[in-house]
Design goal:
The chain is an alpha+beta fold. The structure holds dioxothiomolybdenum(VI) ion. The site of dioxothiomolybdenum(VI) ion has 10 residues, from loops. Dioxothiomolybdenum(VI) ion binds next to loops.
Length: 710
């Protein structure tokens, strides 16, 4: 194999910068004259703030401004009839309070500590109104989503499962789970005159941020510069522009100095979205030999009173298995809470927990191996859309994953498998996530010293996007990776989609591939050879023969129109082996295997890391994470890392990623399908199912804490 080809394991091109502290995150830019913004949060969950006493804060040392609903400069995009209206919460635009911890003031001072102190001096007077944060009490107030033409789904007959010979009918609860990336959300904003603004901000999409900030302030997008070169994790929490980012720019405009606004860890629980609390009912009906007759999947999840959030929690039940009858229902319950946001595997992670747990329950009722049950309901075409899959190797995932976890050692009878005093269990959980591709543009420059630079306005929230792009370019151009640099995270670069939905390698990777092909063709033509020649040529010599110091090209890459004919998904089978202590309920996750059909894998090293990271997120979802409200106040009681538990190294033993690694022939020229979301989907049910296999205890309410096992 040639060096630096797609399919290699290339170390991160920015790894040295990251481990030496050279990588600058949004909060680390030294901007002259910097000031610091600190948000003051409401302490009621509904009503109005009738007065704010800011006198003490304004007199405190170093304070430059205290912005409140009573004095805030108007944000054009917040006003009724705005040309480009900003969706969601309009911070400081009026005095209404929709949820506890909603910001009611922003203090700007010359140091962070002074701003924090002054923020503590702001005193609010409220008119308190009744509020609701109790999901269970309000579940009957669920409404069909208004957005996006949502329709409940029926194939064949609704609720057909009820008349089947073997029936499972259960309810599954997923608590609120918060992204909590290690890096806090930070925005540094500064203006050049009245109509040009620059933001260093944590963003999954610099072009999207550019459009949102331009809309908010009524600016030409070209006058908005967004920088987000390094992102310390986001998981969906930076897919959109949040009110605090607009507030930072609003404050910078007012004080005529740069403002850096950093959320506190507690504010990370309330200001930047979360995976919503969801209750799902699953009905499964099967024949005695394990053929599904009907699937019913009903989901209720929470949203905010001021903005609707929806996700595809029930979608997976519509296509993952071959059942003649399927119906799904989805409702959102508006509460006095901050608005949710997509969180890694949005919708599918939630839905798969319920569906894959219920299938496991069905397997025990049928006395059938859980893998065999899935094989009996395997579908070679998409039963929802009646289209062929662009590619699907889920059977291979079952088989390879089963081998790697040691499925042959599983005992069908719960509680029958012991190692010393520990109960041993094995479980499987499957998932799928749409394989998408957006339009993206890349610009390439070959210089006479042989170096290649490529730019595209994508982001890297952690997967190693730059590294994959360098590998695609190295492979396509046939030159060593260390000659190539890839730049991202800057809105001045050519257009690229927001990094989300597992689509970056598919979208931006295609643009990188295509721009490299275009450059190659140009160089061959310059060398007087056919553009599609495969004969090796010396690119630098071609430049020199033509007396050119460099050559530059920009190429847009759009989706394949043929793709319409196919249904495109990445598929996964997660396997877990657990030990459970029968007396203490302690769970030791001995091993997780993630076997994935995500098309061609560009870079095995970063892809494996991404799968491991996603699995750790899944462990958090399954075992520890739960944001808990005190419904008397509508306020989280565990909005910190002491009380909200995320998995740490000691919780994680072996995680192995296995890739089928067969190129998808349809979606894009590289053959990738995406792994960002699939890495998490299926982990929670694999663990819940393994714990049942070990103990005979079926936990349908996450997280699976020890108290639920004793
Ligand atoms: Mo992902 S939830 O699309 O950042």
């Amino acid at each position: 194999m040639k060096k630096d080809a797609i399919g290699d394991s290339l170390s991160r091109v920015d790894g040295r910068l990251k481990v030496t502290g050279g990588a600058k995150y949004s909060g680390e830019y030294k901007v002259p004259n910097l000031t610091y913004g600190v948000l003051v949060s409401a302490t009621i969950a509904s009503g109005t703030v009738t007065a704010l006493d800011t006198r003490a804060a304004e007199r405190a040392p170093g304070v430059l401004a205290v912005i409140t609903p009573f004095n805030a400069p108007k944000v054009p995009g917040y006003q009724a009839g705005a040309e480009r209206p900003v969706r969601g919460l309009k911070l400081f635009n009026d005095n209404k309070i929709y949820f506890n911890a909603q910001p009611i003031a922003l203090v700007v001072a010359d140091t962070f500590e002074r701003a924090t102190y002054a923020a503590s001096l702001v005193k609010a007077t409220y008119n308190t109104e009744p509020f609701e944060t109790d999901f269970h009490k309000n579940i009957d107030k669920g409404v069909t989503p208004q957005k996006g033409n949502y329709k409940d789904y029926v194939r064949g007959e609704a609720n057909a499962y009820k008349n089947a010979p073997v029936v499972v009918e259960e309810e599954y609860l997923l608590p609120t789970e918060v992204h909590n990336p290690m890096e806090l959300h930070v925005t540094t904003a500064f203006w050049d005159g009245d109509d040009k603004v620059t933001l260093y901000t944590k963003s999954q999409g610099v072009k999207g941020s550019q459009r949102s900030i331009a809309a908010a302030f009524g600016l030409n997008p070209d006058n908005v510069q967004i920088n987000s070169r390094f992102v310390g994790g986001a998981f969906g929490s930076s897919l959109r522009t949040w009110p605090h980012e607009i507030a930072a720019a609003q404050a910078a405009k007012l004080v005529k100095r740069p403002v850096k606004l950093t959320l506190t860890r507690e504010q990370m629980f309330t200001q930047v979205g979360y995976r919503p609390l969801t209750i799902q009912k699953i009905g499964l009906g099967a024949t005695a030999d394990g053929k599904l007759i009907g699937i019913t999947h009903e989901s209720h999840s929470q949203t905010a009173v001021y903005e609707e959030f929806t996700e595809g929690a029930v979608n997976v039940s519509q296509f993952l298995y071959n059942s003649p009858n399927v119906n799904t229902l989805y409702k959102v319950v508006p509460l006095n809470v901050g608005v949710p946001a997509p969180m890694r595997g949005p919708g599918e992670a939630t839905g798969s927990f319920a569906l894959e747990s219920a299938l496991d329950e069905l397997s025990y009722k049928l006395n059938l191996d859980p893998i065999e049950l899935r094989l009996r309901n395997y579908t070679d075409t998409d039963p929802e859309r009646n289209k062929p899959w662009s590619s699907k190797y889920l059977k291979e995932c079952y088989q390879k994953g089963a081998e790697a976890i040691g499925w042959a050692d599983r005992k069908a009878q719960p509680g029958a498998n012991k190692e010393g005093e520990w109960l041993v269990g094995y479980g499987i959980g499957c998932g799928a996530f749409g394989a998408y591709r957006g339009n993206a543009v890349a610009k390439i420059k070959l210089t006479a010293d042989g170096s290649v630079n490529i730019q595209s306005a994508t982001s890297d929230i952690g997967p190693g996007t730059g590294t994959s792009m360098v590998l695609i370019a190295a492979d396509t151009l046939g030159i060593p990776a260390d000659k190539i640099t890839f730049e991202l995270g800057n809105s001045a670069f050519p257009n690229a989609p927001t990094q989300g939905g597992s689509a970056t390698v598919s979208s931006v990777g295609s643009a990188v591939h295509d721009v490299c092909v275009a450059l190659k063709q140009k160089l061959y033509t310059m060398a007087g050879k056919p553009a599609d020649s495969t004969e090796p040529i010396d690119y630098v010599a071609v430049l020199k023969q033509n007396n050119m110091p460099s050559v530059e090209l920009t190429q847009e890459s759009k989706g394949n129109p043929e793709a319409q004919k196919y249904s495109m998904y990445s598929f996964s089978a997660h396997f877990a082996k657990v030990h459970v202590h029968p007396l203490t309920g302690q769970v030791k996750i001995k091993k997780i295997v993630a076997c994935v059909d995500a098309g061609k894998i560009v870079n095995h090293k970063t892809a494996s890391s991404q799968m491991i990271g996603g699995a750790v997120g899944g462990v958090g979802m399954a075992m520890t994470e739960e944001a808990v409200f005190d419904d008397r106040y509508g306020r989280y009681i565990n909005g910190n890392f002491a009380d909200y538990h995320v998995p740490v190294n000691a919780d994680i033993q072996q995680i192995e990623a296995i890739f089928i690694d067969k190129p998808d022939p349809v979606l894009n020229p590289v053959g990738t399908k995406g792994i960002g979301e699939i890495s998490l989907i299926g982990v929670a049910p694999a663990l819940a199912n393994a714990i049942y296999n070990a103990t005979g205890k079926r936990v349908r309410e996450l997280p699976i804490t020890p108290d639920k096992l004793i």
